[in-house]
Structure formats: structure tokens, C-alpha cells
Amino acid sequence: MTRAGAVALNTFREAVRDRVLYNLVFFALLMMAAAIFVGGISIGIEELVIKSLGLSAISVIGLLIAVFIGVGLVYKEMDKRTLYALLAKPVRRWEFLLGKFGGLVLTLAVNTLAMAAGLFAALLYVKHHLERMDAVLLIAVYFILLKLMLVVALALLFSCYSTPLLAILYTSAFYVAGLFVQEMRTFHFAVPNPAMEALFRGLSYLLPNFENFNVMAAAAHGREIPGALILQNTAYAVLYSSIVLLVAAAVFSRRNLK
Amino acid sequence: MCFIDGWAELPKNESMPGAAIEIENLTKDYPYGFLHLKKKRSLEGLTMQVEDGEVFGFLGPNGAGKSTTIKLLVGLIFPEAGTARILGKPITDIEMHRDIGYLPEQPYFYDYLTAAEVLDYFARFHDLTAADRSERVARMLKKVGLETARKIQLRKYSKGMLQRVGLAQAILHDPKVVILDEPMSGLDPIGRREVRDIILELKREGRTVLFSTHILSDAEMLCDRVGVIVGGKLRGVGAPGEIVGMKAHGMEILFELPASGTSAAAIVAKATKTGDRYRLQVSEEELYGALEQLRAVGAKILSVAQVKASLEEYFMHLIEADRAQASAVEVSGK
């Protein structure tokens, strides 16, 4: 486990030195602009606009990092052959994968928390105070992080056996499909087709359900988020990511390096 | 039986009790073509041993199967058939990796790290304490001559400097077996000399070194034994001295002509002049006749020596024989 930790810390260090966290500057500028100008164009709903804009930006920026860096996690190491010297050390391939996964999730966690701090700062600037209900935003941010963890697991899996371009396509396709799993479960054809409906239903249970992680609207309006949903989403994200990582490890453990 | 005209067959590498590396019938195919349905055999039934404490050179032209063998040994690729053991442990055993050091061909490391950071990173996989890591990293950087560049990111390193980092990470944890894939590649003469010195030092320390190369002079200089691989097949194993001594190419006479001597004589015309001296190569049967003729023209004989084949000549013979065999198979196939 310490070996996976060493890989994770190195992956985090790589992200920092490759200036991945520079996106925070963009986010900070966005929040500052929103805080300064939103009052003038949306009297009375400044808070809602800041919260919605902030959470959406955290989600989109996180997704871009998760997909674009995630697909290169393994491929880049194989392509540049940095992996060769490492795999000759007493490190198992699954430990390497787990480390790469952990490193990017750590990067995203630091990034997401920094953006969340920026969101609260903008909110404080607009409202001049924070309320207890604003803490719901933290749950929305936590769900975004769980979602990003799942996306990283998928990107890592595709990174193990395909090129970055294809891996981006596969990961994006899974993400988009995962936003519509509820619709897939209740989908009915104009002309009844039980076989296709069963196929869609089956697929909806196999695909990652990203819809469950979207509580941005509720958080922006200050509505309570049930504790059961927090537990359910946490368990779901951990379990689904673990299964995806197991598949990735199985694929990668027999992979011949060129 | 001779396997190449004029060359005695090299001894096959038979199992020995003190073998550090034992390879048995290792075979590797690489898929290619549409859907990877076709397969090209890169290594065919390789069986050999590397003795404990010896420096073993793995020789062969590009694409002969040297790197494939090494990658199989360190677990980067997997064989179609066959097995291998290092220090008695199967290559599939993760514990085996504690005892080996590996330098990949044309190594490339994380370019955002400094040399000290990359060595510290690799040291972490050997369960060393922070103090031990720090001491070893400093010692290795000194050994490979990168002390002053320790805080420079690897993206600013030259190819030769990266090679030194690669060598340092391979021996950082005091491995018993060191496997180096083309360690002299990309190095200037000084760098090559330094790598040679490190290999000799590893040998003095009692470590086993297996390295691949196509620079034959390095192999002649460093190796206790060499294995020659061509077209994925091991063609022979032996001491460089055994190999180069297997076929005498005749005799060489070194002589000088006095000022009064005639350089127009037929025997002198056959010789090659270098400075004031002449070199003449003749067969063993012609030796005494040539000496008589040289004496007749007043030549001063400086030395007479047997001309032995170089490792390079042996190497070229193997490659030519392999090509001839391949084209013979092609012709008979048609």
C-alpha cells in the first residue's frame, strides 16, 4: 500500500508541476467577476446565481481535468516508457494503477476544495454573511468529487488499453450515457419492443449513474439533502470505482509493454 | 559439427549449479496486422544461464531479440512459452524484483522531477527509510557524476545524463543481479568509459551483470562470457577469448625496410605501409617463404604474430549465415 502511496504522491506532484492547478486562477477570476457584476443584473437572486455558477464551474473544470488527465495516466507512462524502470521494482501492476488513481483523485480533491473555498468567498462578498443552509453546498461539492472519482476510474480503465483520443471518447460516452440512466429505465418505444426495453433497462444498471450525484439545484436553493443519499452515493461511488479498477487491473496485469 | 563454415560450434550454455539467471525455452511472439491476428516470432526457445558473479554480454544486431529477452526477465512482457528464474525465484515472483536492478534501453524518466527526486522516488519501492534513501541517493549521484546537477529537472538533461540517472536507479538498492539494456547507447567516449568502470566495479563487488550491446569492443573488454543472438535464436555462448580465438586468419609480419632496401619488390608491394613500418598478412603455409623473400630484400623483421578473428568478424559471420539460411528457406518455399 505504501508503494501505491508513493505512486499517488508522484502523480499529484506531476499534476502540480504541470500547472494543472492553474485552473484555479480561471475559477477565481470567474467568481470575482460574478460577485462584482451579478448584483447589477440579477437583483434579489445574486446568491442563487453565484451558487449555481460556482457549482457548475467546479463540476465542469473537475470533469475536464478528470477526463483529459485521467486518459493519459497510464498511456503516457507507457508511451514515454517511464513505466519500464518502475515496473522492474518490487511493485505490482495493480499497486501502480491504484497509485495513479489515488494521485489524480487527490489532485481533484485539492482543486475542488480550493474552488469550494473560492465559492464561499464570493458568496460572503455578495451576502456579507454565511448561513447554516450554505453548508449544503459542501454536500454538493462532495458529490461532485464522488462523480469525478468515478470518471477518473473509467478514464484509467480506458487508458490501460487504448489511445488517449479513444479513451476520451469512451469516457465521455459513458459520462453522457450515465446522465440518462433514469430515462433508460423508463424508456418506452412508440411501437412496443420488450426486448429493446429490457436491453435499455439492463444497460441502465450497468452504466454508472451520474444523475444521482447532481444535487446542484437543491444546494443552490438551500434545500436539505437527505443523509441516506449521502451514504448511498458514497457507497455507490466507492463500489463502482472499485469494480472498474479491478477490471483495469485485470486488463493491465497481462498487458505487454511495447 | 560446424554450424558456420570454418567456425567451430560454440559450447551450448548448460545448466550450472551457481546460475544467477536461468532461462529455459523462452519464446515470444509479437502480434501484428489487422486485429493483431498475425504473429511474428521474436524469440525462439531461448535456453541459457548466466553464472553467479559473472559479467555476461548479450550480443546481437538490432531486432535480434536482446531487448525482448531482457523485458521478459524483468516482467515488462510475457512469454508465449518457457520459464526463467533469477536467483532461484521465478520471474513472475514479485520478490525477485528486490534483487534485480534494470536499466531500460534509452531510458526516459519523469521530466518534471530532478535527478535526486527521481532516485528518491524509486528508492521508496525498496522499503528504505528516509535517512537511508537520502544517503543512497547522494552516493549514487556521486557515483554517476551527477552531483552538481542533482537539483536540475530531468527535462533539461542530455541523453547521456539520462543514461547515468538510469544507471543510478538500477543500482540504487544494491541489487545482486544488474540487467542493463544497451548501457553504452548514446554516450560519448568519456561516458562509455565511466559506464564500463561501473560495470567492472559491480563485478568486483560480486554482482552478476547481464548487459545487451551491439558495441563489440565493450563486450570484449568487459565480459566473462557472451551470448550471441541472431533472428531470435541463441547462436552460441562462450568467453570472448574462446570466440575470437576459434579461427586463426593467418600470420602477420611486421617489418621495416632499411634506406638501402627496395620497396619495389613484389613481396613488399603486397604489404600495407603505416608510417615507416610494413604489415604483411600471409597464410601459415606461406610464412617461411615470405620471411625468406623479406630477408632477401634486406627487411628488418620486427614481429610475427598469429592473426585471430575479432568478435566483430564472428558476429558478421553469424548474421550473414542467418541471412543465407533465411533466403534458402525462402527459395525452397517458392
Task: Outline the structure in words.
- With 258 residues, chain A is mainly α.
- Chain A has one domain.
- Helix content of chain A is 76%, strand content 0%.
- Chain A is built from twelve helices and no strands.
- In chain A, helix 2 runs antiparallel to helix 3.
- The longest helix of chain A is centred in the middle third of the chain and has 35 residues.
- Chain A is globular, with a radius of gyration of 20 Å.
- The longest helix of chain B is centred in the last third of the chain and has 23 residues.
- In chain B, the strands form three sheets. Chain B has a six-stranded mixed β-sheet, sandwiched between helices. In chain B, strands 2-1-4-5 form a four-stranded antiparallel β-sheet, covered by helices on one side. In chain B, strands 12-13-11-14 form a four-stranded antiparallel β-sheet, with helices on one face.
- Chain B has two domains: 226 residues, P-loop containing nucleotide triphosphate hydrolases (Rossmann fold); 61 residues, Dna Ligase, domain 1 (2-Layer Sandwich).
- Chain B contains ten helices and 14 strands.
- The N terminus of chain B is likely disordered.
- The interface between A and B is medium-sized, with 23 and 31 residues.
